[in-house]
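General statements about sequence and structure are easier to judge against a single worked case. For one protein, we set the task of working out the structure tokens from the amino acid sequence alone. This step matters because it turns folding into a mapping between discrete strings. The amino acid sequence and the backbone structure tokens for this protein are reproduced below.
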Amino acid sequence: MNKVNQAKIGKYVEQKEGFKTFTPFDFPPKDGFPINPKLYKKHEEAIRLVGKLDGITRLLPDKDYFTYMFVVKDATYSSQIEGTKATLQDAVAAPVTEEKARKNPDVDDIEHYIKAANYGIKRTENFPLSLRFIRELHEKLMHQTRATQHAYPGEFRRSQNWIGGKTPADASFVPPAPDDMRKSLDDLEKFIHAKDDYPSLIKAGLIHAQFETIHPFTDGNGRTGRMLVT
């Protein structure tokens, strides 16, 4: 375990339509994910900084406001990755009511992210991270947004999606076909609940990477995946 394996994590599967999808192998691999010392060192540093942040927040007079601003910042930056033009200042100054927020679709995207993130944080207090939880999170994120008609909120996709390009044939990446996707999702859920020796933040990274590889929703995968890490 002195270095990370370069083993294959999946295979390309030819589809009858003429394009290839990437289907993950069993997850995690039988021999696991060896982690090199450099990555362990980075994990230790990250844990130290998280502990430092936790110590600072204990001194704050209003922890709820700090958490709120963290969620707003995360929501803004995550939405910007998807092309949203609204800024952090726009998000903070946004009207409270949905009716007014909808006058600016970009701000509305951020508002949906904030509500979904707050729902997820509260939900994890008495419900485990699972496929059901992920569907719930996606439903909260995508319900009544401008992309709702393409997102099927809370439902795993039944059709092929892809990243980049106009069709799967010229795409940058094509996730597993719907029929192959279910096993990959089941493997992911088992990994989430498995008692293993992976450092917490590294495991979170592996979960996020595998989720994005599967790309289980028609739309909103990036935001949902980043929210899971949060």
Observations:
- The two ends are 29 Å apart (CA to CA).
